[in-house]
Amino acid sequence: AARAAQTFRPGLEQIAAYRAGKPAPVGPDGRSIKLSSNENPYPPLPAVERRLAEILPAAIARYPSIAAPEVTAVLAARFGVSPENLVLGAGSVEVAAQLIHALTAPGDEVLYAWRSFEAYPILTRVAGAVPVEVPLDAAARHDLPAMAAAITERTRLVFVCNPNNPTGTVVTAAELEAFLAEVPQHVLVVIDEAYVHFDRDPDSPSGIEAFRRHSNVAVLHTFSKAYGLAGLRIGYAIASREVAEALRKAAIPFAVSRLAQEAALASLEAEAELQLRIDEMTRERQRVCEALAAAGLGFAPSQANFVWMTAGAESARIAAAFEARGISVRCFAGEGVRVSIGTPEENDAVLDVIAGLA
Ligand code: PMP
Predict the structure, then answer these.
(1) Is the pLDDT of residue 22 over 90?
(2) Selecting from 3.40.190.10, 3.30.70.141, 3.90.1150.10, 2.170.120.30, what CATH number does the domain 18-44+272-357 have?
(3) Cα separation, 218 vs 238, whole angstroms
(4) Which residue has the least CA distance to atom 2 on ligand 1?
(5) Is the peptide bond preceding residue 69 cis, with omega within 30 degrees of 0?
(6) CATH 3.40.640.10 residue spans of the chain
(7) 301 C-alpha to center of ligand 1: Å?
(8) Against a cut of 0.95, is the pTM above it?
(9) Which residues belong to any copy of the Aminotransferase class I/classII large domain (predicted)?
């Protein structure tokens, strides 16, 4: 084949494309269990399926509303903010891209903890900005004092992923407040709360409360995790009017489909039903953690719908043991293994593997 004659933007060769969680292999019992992407293991709520069936023909041939006024109004009312404070995207990852594109010029810095969500370095580099990664502390938690110390004149954005992916750890409200008190006003602090619905720690901060108190705070939420709409792609930011206006300029036109908007609306109306599933997932998380403790395996305390096994050099071996059972997990070689929480039956299979590792 002919070699491409195009040139690509400088630095692109250093970027590895986003690596999604692997599909599950087939286990000895013929089952495949995908626990590699922190998805919701349940089928869509009946109300969501009904709503999608109702709108299906019209929603396909026509462009969606860019303003998405209904879902925006419901979310604004729920959080007690103005619709002007809300910006939707095709998943919160698109909103994260909007933030980076709207706030950084080439050479500006984007700061976040590492390890954290793998899209942060990719989106940062693609935008021509410079990633600054501050290691998590020994307990796999954000080291907020070190992050505050790493802020420079070039820092435009700080992502605080809370609970953190892939470790499931959280910062406390007091730690976050102390951090925000130190962050200069020119820096926007983005609290990525993709997993906030699973957080049961009474000391955890509320991103929305932080947004109310600090004009340089924005919050990212998603319908992909607790709401189970990962395949439909819808997430949003709550930010100051000025930041929100800038994000709308950086958005991809029509990225959020009408199907996604309507499914989000139906989910927001079915909160009680969703809450039962979320409660079950947090109970199941507890069960997996107890099994890990009983087996003497290291893990970080999790407030998300996944658990981080601090397996270090054993990570590849442990991931292979899961895969041999038809369970896909996320392996960070030499560091750890992230196992998403599935249905009780799926977690039973996880417990079997854990027992075998003891
Ligand atoms: N933030 C974090 C911390 C995540 O883990 C993810 C999904 N892996 C996202 C944002 C993006 O999710 P989505 O684009 O589906 O909203």
Answers:
(1) no
(2) 3.90.1150.10
(3) 6
(4) 194
(5) no
(6) 46-269
(7) 20
(8) yes
(9) 33-354
